[in-house]
Structures
1.
Amino acid sequence: MQEIIEQSASEILKIYLYSQQQQQQGNSGSSDDAQRSPRKWTPTQAWLLIRLLASTDTLRYNEVLLAIDALKSPNPTPPDAVLQALEQAELITIVAAPNGRPSAVKPGKPVFAPAFRLLRADRVLGARLDALLLAEQVKAETAAIRAAEEELRLLGELGRRSWSGELGARVEYLLKKLQASQAKIERFEREAGVAKGVLTTEY
């Protein structure tokens, strides 16, 4: 059983977590459709799901959508289409409610649950992929800061006398958003520093 789990973990690593080029060159376990067309998900999105499913075998569907959307990956595919693509690629299974509404996300195969935990327990692999995930999160928050700063600049052109009522509330909202995004960036960068420390000290 342990050999089966280890083999499944190795296949997950090659199929879902390597780059698109590596997948096309060395993946014999993926479907023909995945070979012929660009995949609609990124390795960091797949790793996010693996991380979440390593802690619990069942996730709320909408909770996963929010997690993928918050990542703001450069992948333009909408979060629900990302999950559908990962289900087609057999990494996950989407469970529907009695009325047909997607309600939960589970590992694509029973053996994937322990395989996810095995991958998550690999400190070096986790540090490498966590660093990539954190880098995307930093980019997302940086973009949010730039958007808020641009809006503040436009409001500033109206003059401070106009910063009253609804405009004043908007300015306060943007300033709080800037502060929150900056706090997140600082936290992400600290976590990335820890991950990079693992990469430079462990094999």
2.
Amino acid sequence: MNIKSKLGRVAGVAAAVVAITGLGLTGTASASTARPAHPILAKGCVFQTVNGHYLTAVGGGGRITDVIHSDAIHLLAWEKFSLHYLGNGQYAIQTVNGHYLTAVGGGGRTTDTIHSDATQIGSWEKFRISCGH
């Protein structure tokens, strides 16, 4: 398996966990100042559910309600994400319109869990991705 395939699997696991269960990804519970832009590790990542649907950043991102859907059957712009490696095993997930996914409050919530309106990477926009558990 090549590195592109491995990154695709890692990104898929991350998005599925964020959108569907909210488990396995952790954010930091305090706000931070804006950080400089980080290089894109992978662009055009898509996340597919086990039954063949794709995750969608509704409206391409920029939302605090109705943020993620999992009912798309075709790949369009809203179903594509970029993955940024931030160092120290942390990643940011960017929507097609340049916003970042946020674990509201740093994670640990059961409602209002994910937003897609962040324009900069702060502590709540950082995720760790774990595979093979």
